[in-house]
Amino acid sequence: MMNYSLGKGSYKDWLLAETAFSADALGKSEAVMLLGNGYMGLRSDNEEPYLAERRNLFINGTFNKAEANEVTELPNAANVTRLDIRVDGERFSLELGETNDYIKQLNMKDAELTRSFDWTSPKGKTLRFRFSRFVSFDELHLIAMKMEVESLSHDVALSIDSGINAQMTNSGVQHFKEGERRIADGRFIQLVQTTNESAIDFVHNTVHALKLNGEKITAQADKDMARRKAWMSYDIELRPHDHLVVEKLSTVHTSKDSDLNSGTYSLEQLRAESLGQLKGHDVLGYDALFEVHRRAWQQKVWGAYNVEVESSEAVDQLALRFSLYHLTAMMPAHDEQMGIGAKALSGEGYKGHSFWDTEIFILPFFILSNPQAAKSLLTYRYHGLAGARKKAQDNGYRGAMYPWEMAWPTDGEVTPVWGDIDIVTGEQTKIWSGFIEQHISADIAFAVYQYENITGDRQFMERCGYEMVFETAKFWASRLEWNDAHRQYHINHVIGPDEYKEHINNNAFTNHMAYFNLKLAMRYADKLSQEHTELWETFGLEADYADWREKAERLYLPEPRAEDLVIPQDDTYLQLTEIDLAKYKNQTKVRTIYRDYNAEQINGIQVTKQADTLLLFYLIDQTFLRGDRRFSEAAKKANFRYYEARTLHDSSLSLATHAIMASDIGERELAYKLFRQTCDIDMGPDMKTSDEGIHAASIGGIWKSAVFGFAGVRLADGKLRINPRLPKNWQRLRFTVYWQGQPLQLDMTHESMDIEASAGRPVEFETGGTVYTVDRRLNIPLNHQQSLSST
Amino acid sequence: MMNYSLGKGSYKDWLLAETAFSADALGKSEAVMLLGNGYMGLRSDNEEPYLAERRNLFINGTFNKAEANEVTELPNAANVTRLDIRVDGERFSLELGETNDYIKQLNMKDAELTRSFDWTSPKGKTLRFRFSRFVSFDELHLIAMKMEVESLSHDVALSIDSGINAQMTNSGVQHFKEGERRIADGRFIQLVQTTNESAIDFVHNTVHALKLNGEKITAQADKDMARRKAWMSYDIELRPHDHLVVEKLSTVHTSKDSDLNSGTYSLEQLRAESLGQLKGHDVLGYDALFEVHRRAWQQKVWGAYNVEVESSEAVDQLALRFSLYHLTAMMPAHDEQMGIGAKALSGEGYKGHSFWDTEIFILPFFILSNPQAAKSLLTYRYHGLAGARKKAQDNGYRGAMYPWEMAWPTDGEVTPVWGDIDIVTGEQTKIWSGFIEQHISADIAFAVYQYENITGDRQFMERCGYEMVFETAKFWASRLEWNDAHRQYHINHVIGPDEYKEHINNNAFTNHMAYFNLKLAMRYADKLSQEHTELWETFGLEADYADWREKAERLYLPEPRAEDLVIPQDDTYLQLTEIDLAKYKNQTKVRTIYRDYNAEQINGIQVTKQADTLLLFYLIDQTFLRGDRRFSEAAKKANFRYYEARTLHDSSLSLATHAIMASDIGERELAYKLFRQTCDIDMGPDMKTSDEGIHAASIGGIWKSAVFGFAGVRLADGKLRINPRLPKNWQRLRFTVYWQGQPLQLDMTHESMDIEASAGRPVEFETGGTVYTVDRRLNIPLNHQQSLSST
C-alpha cells in the first residue's frame, strides 16, 4: 500500500512512503521512488531479489541498437544494488519469515531512499534492517548505499554477496559486449562493458566498507567471478545487539560523458580516473558524501524553485514536490546533447525516447524555473535538426521534419515501425506515429517561441532558434497538399494528438499548429530583415518567405461551427457515431473501451483519447495568434464542454491540459478533480501504473496545472498575465517564475496576490483585465468574483 | 535431499527421486533429471519460477556466436515450461505456504518427469498438484506437459499464465533476434526467433487444453504479449474435489533440422508445417503421445541395451540405468553433423562444445551398444576435418590438428582464448588448451581404430576413417620437434590430460598416443597398399609413409624407470616436490588444493589432476601395441600405485579410468569405491555438482567401469577378451555388446559366464588365458581365483 505522506517534524510533506511490502507490487516503489540526477536514473529496487523486480540503471544518452531489427534504446546498465543476504544459511527475503515495522520511503527533500523493518527468519532469528541509498546530485557518477543490521536476539551467521552484475538485459535484449573485470587492492571491483552497436564504454566501479559497532572490520571476503559478474562474499558473525554497517559505494562512467569529450578519450584513462574517483569517495564514506548531496539538493532545487501550497489536502503539497523532485531527477543539465524520455530514466517503457511530451508538458517548467536547463533541452532539439532534415528528405519534403521519437540527436526517427502482432489475425500492426504523427515539428517551433518569448534569449535564437523555426516552416510549406476543389491547402492522412484516430484529414490541432509555425517563421523573418539583415542573408529567406505567406493564407483552418462554436477535430469527427461513454469516463484503468470495441470501431466513434482540440486552445492562448476570433472565450468554453465529455484521458498527457482549461473557464471543482487525477497517474493507489516507469509528461503536468491552471500564469507575445483561480481548498500558493531573466516571486491567496521582482527590474503584467507594473514588490487585492472569472 | 531410488513394483530401481524441496538446490534435479532425445535437452526446472532456477532448452547443433568477443555456443532457446500460477491471487510457490508429500522424480524407464505434493497456500487453501512432463523419443520436436490440480477443501480461484518466453539468455548473453509472434485459431501460439550470427531460425509452437472433471473446457483465456513473449491467461474456479487437467504441448523446430536440409528451406513453410504437426499432437493429447514415447524408449533403449546388475546396493543398478538414460538423451542419432557436448544438452557449462570426452569416455558405449550411433559421432569428427586442417595450417602444421573444443564441424577451434581475470593481479588468464592440449588428434585416431576394430565397418573407413587417421598422422609428423642433443623427436610445450601441468615437454600420454597415431596410419597404409591400391593412390601416401616411419622410429617414448617401472608423466614430473596429499585425496569437493596452493605452485608439485599416464595404459591395452614391454602387467601395477596416490580426481574424467585400472590389477575394493565415486559425480548427495549440467564423460564412465572394468571386456587388434572381476557385492551382471555386427549377450556371476551369439556366427574370445569359440551359446565356469587375477 502506497501512502502519500507520513511526514513528521521537518520532513512533513516530503515523504513518499510504502508501509506494507508486497512482492506483487514492486514496480510502484521502484519507479515513483526513483533516484536520479539527470546523468543517471536508478530504480529503487530492493536490495534482496524478487522474481517480479525490474532492476534498472539508465545512463542518459547512451543509446544502442542491439540488433538490426530493433530500435535504439537506453540499455540497462550493470547492477550494483542487489545484495544476496543469508541469515544462518537461510535466504533473506520479505516473502519468507515475518516482517514487522516495515517502511520504505523516499525523502524528497534530501533525495534519499530508506527502508527499515524487523525481520524474523523462518528459523526464528530476528534482525533489524535499515537500508539507505542515494544517487549523488553533487557527484553525478556516484551511487551510495548503506545497510545497517542488528541481531535483536540470537547469535547469527550473516552472509552477504555483493558486487557488479552485468547480466542485466532490457527484457531479454542484451546491449553489451562483455569487457574486462578486475579487483584492485583486493576491494575495488571494476567491470567494463561496451554497447554492441554504438560502442559506448561503460566503466563500473564498486567498493565495500564494513563497520561492526563503529569499528572498521576486514571481514572474511571471498572474491568470485562468473560470466559478466564479479562480487565479494562476506561472512560475519553477529552477537545480539551487534550493529553492522555495510557501505557500498559505486560509480558509473561512460565514454559518452561530456566531460570526456574534450581531449582524446582512452578507456585505460577512464578506468584509472574513475577508480581514483571511487577511492576518493571511499575515504569520505556514505555519511559525508550524503551531506554534500543533501546540500546540493537544498541549494539547487528546493532553494531555487520550490512551490508551496497551503491546502486542506496534504497530498497537494506532496504532489507538487513529487513533480519538482522528478523533474530534477530527469533533467540532463550536464549535457545539451541529451533529452528527456517519456519515462525519463525510470523504466524500459518508450526506450528512453523523447516525444513532444518534452516541449509541451515538461519544458514549460524549465523555461519558467530554470531557463538554462530549458535552453539545454531545446539545444538537444537543435542538434536533432540533422535527423529531422534526413527524415524530411526521406519523406520527400523540405526543411526539418522532426522525428516522432528521438534518441541520440543524429539518429533521426527511431519510432519502432512494427508493434505487437494482432494476436487474432496474426498480422503485425504497423506503428504509424513515426510516419504521420507530424505535429511534433510545430510543437518544437512553439517551444522555441515560448522560450524566446519568456526568456528573451537572443543568443539562443541566433545560434539555434531561428533556424529551427525556419526549417520546420519549410517542412510544413512542402507538406501541405493543394485541394483543387476547395482551392485550399489541406493536411491529409495524419494522426493528431488523439491517437484513437489514425489517417485523418485536416486535424484541427495539426493544421492550426502548422499555420502558427508558418506565421512564426514569417514573424522571425520580418524581425531579421529589420534588425539582422546579415542573418536574413545567411538564411536566404527570400523565396521561402513568399512561399510561407502564400501557404499560410490558403491553408484550411477549421473554424468553430456556427451552431455551437465547436471546432471539428478533423474532417469527419463530428459526423461519427455517438455512444454513451459514461462507463469509460468513470474507468479506474485506462483503455477499458478496448474491452468492448476494437481499434477500427473506435475510429468510427466520437471518442477522443486525449486532449486534442483543447490542447490547441491552450497553446494558441500563449501565442500572438490568441486574439484570433476562432479562439474566443465562448469558443473555448464550447469546445471544452464538447470535447471533455468525449475524452477518455487514455493518455497520461491529457488530464493536466483539461485541468488548466477547466480552471480557465471557471470550472473550479472539475479543475481540481482533474489535477488530483493527474497526480494519481503515478502517485495514486493503482500499484501497476508505473511498472514501465513514471510518466514524465504528467509529472510536468502537475506543476503546469498549479502554475498555468490555478495560478493562472500565462505568457504570450511578450505579455505576462496572472489570473489566479485557486481551488476552494487551497488557501495559499507560493512559487517563483523567471520572466525575461528576472525571478518573480508570487504569493497568492483567494484574497490577494503578492508579487516581487527580485532583481528590481520593472515588470508589466495583467491581472483581472488591469495592467500593473511591479517595480520591486506589489500587492494586489483580488476580487473573489474576478479570481473566478475567465481571462 | 536427492535419493537414489524409491522404487516400488515394476519401477523398482528405475526412479531417481527428490523427496524434499529446496529453493537453494534447484540445479541438481534440473540437470540429473534432464529430459532429452538427442535433438533437444530440456532441464527439469520446476513449472513455477524460483530465483535461482536455470531454465534451459538446448537444440543440438544450433551454435551461435553472439558477439565478436564471445565464442560460439548453444543458445538457450525460448522457454515453455514456466507456469505462473495463483491461488486466490496468491503466488503459488513451494517457498511459500506449506508443502506435504512432496516428491519429484524421473522415471528412467519411461523417461517421464513427475512432481506431486499437497500445497497449502498462506491463506490456508489446500490443493493437490501433480505435474508430468516428457520430451518425446518418438517425435523429436515435441515437449509435452501436464498439470493436474485438485482443491482439497475450499472453493478456489486459480489463475495460470502460460505461453512462450523468448527473453531467455545464456547468463545474460542474448543469441536471438526477435521474430514474429502469432496466435492461430485463438489457441496455437507461434513464436519465431533467429540467432543473430549463425542465422538459424527457431520456430516455437505451443497449445493448451483444459479438462475439468474429465470434460474439455474452454476457460476464460486472455491472450497477451510483451517483448519476446506471448502467453495465455486462464482463470478457473475450482470447487472442492474438482479435478483440473491442463495439458500443454509444445514443439520446437529450427532451420538446422536435418529433415529440412533436402529441398529448399523456407521459414513460412517451416512455420506452417510445425504448426500442422502441433495440431496433430493436440488431437492425440498427452496420454496417447506418452504411450508412443514410452514404447519408443522400451524398444530402442531398454530392449536394446539394458545392463542388469544384481548387487547388494540397489544404487548400482540405478546408476547403470542413469548412465544409459543420459547416454540416450544426449545422443544426436538424427544428425551426423552433431556431437555431444561435455555437459551434453543439460546446462550452459562448456557451451555445448565437444571435447575428447566424446571419443575416450562416451563413444566406447556406442561402439559396443549402438554402432550406428557411434558411426554418426565419428562422422561428426570427419566433417570436422575442415576445421582441423584449418587449425593445423594456422599453427604452421600439416594435416589435421583437431580443435580442443569443437562446435559446428566447420567452425574449427572454439576454445575461449581468455578465461576469467586473475582477480588479484587484474590480468586476464589465457586458456592454453586450445593451443597446446594437442593429444585430442591422437584420441580421435584411437577412436577410429577402436570403431573399426570392433565393428569391422569397412565402408566407414573408406569414406571417412582412413582419411582421419592419415590426416592426424600428418599433423603429428609435422608437429614433432627434432632434438639434436638427444638425436630424437620430442613434443615440447604441451598440456597432457593432467591439466595441472601446463607447458610441459614430452608428456608420456601425448608422445605415446602420437606414436600410436603414426603407427596406425602406417598400418592402414599397408593395408591399402595390399588391398586397396586405388585408395593408396588416391591418398598419395608414398612420401608421408616414409616420413611417418622415420618420425615414429625416432620419437622419444618415455620408458618405465629401471628402479620402479614408473613412466615419467613428463620430463620433469618425477623430479618435482612431493607433499602430503592425504588432505586433498579425502576431499569432498574438487579443487580443494587451490585453497592452499596457487596454480604456479601446483605446477611444481607431484600432483596430478586426473588420469594421465594411467589412461595411456588403459588405451594402449586396446591397441595392437599392447604387447609392448613398456606396458607390461608389472609396469601397469607400478604406475597405478604411483599415480593413483598422486591423483586428486579433480576432473570428472578421472575416476572411471582408475576404476577400470584398479579392477584390471585386482584391486577390487578400490575399483568398486572408485566406481561409486564415479556415479556420485552427478547422482551423489552434493547438491551443487550438476548446476552447470551433468558430466557426460563420467556418465559414460559409469558404463565403462562396469563393462570394461568389472566385466573385464577388452577388444584389441581383432581379439576379444572377457575377464570378469565382479565386485564382491555383485552377484550377477548381464549386458549385451556388439562384436563385428553381432550382438553377444553376456551373463556373468562369480562362478560362471554365459555367452550367447544371437546371430549364430562363431566368435573367438579369450577368458582367463584360454581361447574359446562361441557358436550360439556357451557357459564357462570361472575359477574364482582366476576371476580375480589379472590378464
From TrEMBL, chains A, B:
Residues 321-704 form the Glycoside hydrolase family 65 central catalytic domain. Keywords: Glycosyltransferase, Hydrolase, Transferase. Residues 714-774 form the Glycoside hydrolase family 65 C-terminal domain. Pfam families: Glyco_hydro_65C, Glyco_hydro_65m, Glyco_hydro_65N. Residues 18-256 form the Glycoside hydrolase family 65 N-terminal domain. InterPro entries: 6-hairpin_glycosidase_sf, 6hp_glycosidase-like_sf, Gal_mutarotase_sf_dom, GH65_N, Glyco_hydro_65_C, Glyco_hydro_65_M, Glyco_hydro_65_N, Malt_Pase/Glycosyl_Hdrlase. One of its GO terms (molecular function) is hydrolase activity. The keyword GTP-binding does not apply. The keyword Hydrolase applies. Belongs to the glycosyl hydrolase 65 family. PANTHER family: GLYCOSYL HYDROLASE-RELATED, PROTEIN-GLUCOSYLGALACTOSYLHYDROXYLYSINE GLUCOSIDASE. This is Glycoside hydrolase family 65 protein. The lineage of its organism: Bacteria, Bacillati, Bacillota, Bacilli, Bacillales.
